[in-house]
Amino acid sequence: MFRIIRNRLIRSLFFAVVILFLTGCDQKIDEEKFVAVYSDLLIAKDTISYSGYSEDDLLKQILKKHDVKFAEYEATISYYNEDSERWEGFFDKAAAYLEEQRKSPK
To answer: 2-61: per-residue pLDDT in tens?
Structure first.
């Protein structure tokens, strides 16, 4: 009897961990952070020919800087790709963010 209960408990815990892992991988980045990540990517890509880094290297560095996992970044891109109006609103916010960054003293 104890063995049956223990096996069910272990099986339940295993499935709970798997479900938490799978749902955690599909987390998207909040829009404010995504604006900063995307803006940094735009700036970095403009300077890529001078830096010697590949686009993949730049992406990895920027995601690390903003403490974002690649899976989160991909989930966010997929979320925005579902609706073109999301991208329109996002691009307005990104443009405002870039303008603010340009005006702020360094």
So the answer is: 556 544 545 544 444 334 444 445 688 999 999 999 999 988 887 776 666 788 888 999
Q: CA 91, 81, 69, 97: dihedral to nearest 10 degrees?
A: 0
Token pair listed for 84: 């073109």
* Amino acid at position 49, single letter: S
Q: How many CB atoms lie within 10 A of CB 66?
A: 15
Domain count, the chain: 1
User: Domain range for residue 97?
Assistant: 27-103
Query: Side-chain half-sphere of 52: how many Cα atoms within 13 Å?
Result: 0
Residue 61 falls inside a structural domain:
yes
